[in-house]
Design goal:
This protein is mainly alpha-helical. Helices cover 75% and strands 0% of the residues.
Length: 84
């Protein structure tokens, strides 16, 4: 159930990451949401590996980790996607 929770939180985190890190995305809003999902999953996995706890539902801590992961991944994506 943890991965499904991170995907749902990732949808929210992707939208918030887009608001925090505005600008022209090479892939558009849908790609930004997908990056949010992946960022949330990666952020949750790293958080669990570092011992900050597991995903036990929708809470503020999980949302914060997902937003940080999504913003970071969005930043990295924009750096690599605009280097054509």
């Amino acid at each position: 159930m943890g991965i499904i929770t991170w995907i749902i939180i990732g949808l929210i985190a992707g939208a918030i990451a887009k608001a925090i890190h505005p600008g022209k995305d090479p892939g558009g809003f849908i790609v930004t949401i997908i990056i949010g999902i992946v960022g949330a999953v990666v952020g949750g996995w790293i958080s669990s590996m570092l011992g900050y706890g597991t995903v036990d539902g929708f809470n503020i801590g999980s949302l914060f980790v997902a937003i940080v992961g999504a913003v970071l991944l969005l930043f990295i994506y924009r750096k690599f996607a605009t280097r054509s």
